[in-house]
Amino acid sequence: MEPPEISKEVEQTAYSAYFISLGEFNHAFTSLEHHLTCCIKNSLSRQMREGSDEWIVNAIVGSVRIGTAKAILKRILKVIKAEKRQMDLLDKLFLQSGEIEWLRNRLAHHATFLRGTDENHWFINTDFASASEEDKSEFVGFQPGAIRLASADLIAIKQAVDDLFSMLHGLIPAREIVLPTWQYKSSKLIRHRPKSGGRQKQSARPPQS
Fold first, then answer.
1. Predicted local distance difference test score (pLDDT) of residue 171
2. Which of 83, 116, 135, 165 is surrounded by the most beta carbons within 10 Å?
3. Which neighbouring-strand residues pair with 112?
């Protein structure tokens, strides 16, 4: 049975919602990555003698990406002997960002197509063309709303990290930083491996068009 044809109007509306969500998501992700690097630079600059050229710091951390930046910031907390609760907070913030990084990498490196024809507009991200073995290819179903939730969490993570390091550097008064309530959860995605019997547990399936 052939799938129903998606009208141009539905397709345009669905992709517009996806592109807006994707743009917001990419902006939030790169903003967090930039901010973590700035936190490292600020921490290093405070340890260097006054008057040192800040471009030395830029040369060290300028090409750092988000994974390395997180590891460095965690080490900085250990070096400055931050409290355990502060280190635990950073761990929890970065654990959530790790969940979102997985989604970001999928969207950045693999193709996404409109799948559902109803008003909910399901999309499918597939790595079929780049999987090393056929049974390792995976479809990830999602709605644009899931990306917006991830964007909101990235913004919350950036603010919490900023508050934590500003407080540790004495830029703002000491206070308890509350862990944000996460909006994005991996359960918002539907992961399926069609050639491996769909080993992932599915709570639902995307609309079959």
1. 84
2. 165
3. 125
CA 58, 99, 18, 22: dihedral to nearest 10 degrees? Answer: 0
* Tokens standing for residue 157: 């993570």
Is the confidence at residue 8, as pLDDT, over 70? yes
Beta strand segments in the chain, E: 111-114, 123-126, 139-142, 190-192
Identify whether the C-beta of residue 197 lies closer than 8 Å to the C-beta of residue 163: no
d(CA 76, CA 90): 11
What is the token pair recorded at 9? 């109007």
Strand partners, 192: 139
The pTM of this model reads 0.80
- Residue 56 has a pLDDT of 63
Residue 204's pLDDT is 45
Q: CA–CA separation, 163 vs 157, rounded Å?
A: 10
Give the CA angle between residues 102, 106, 111 to the nearest 5°: 170
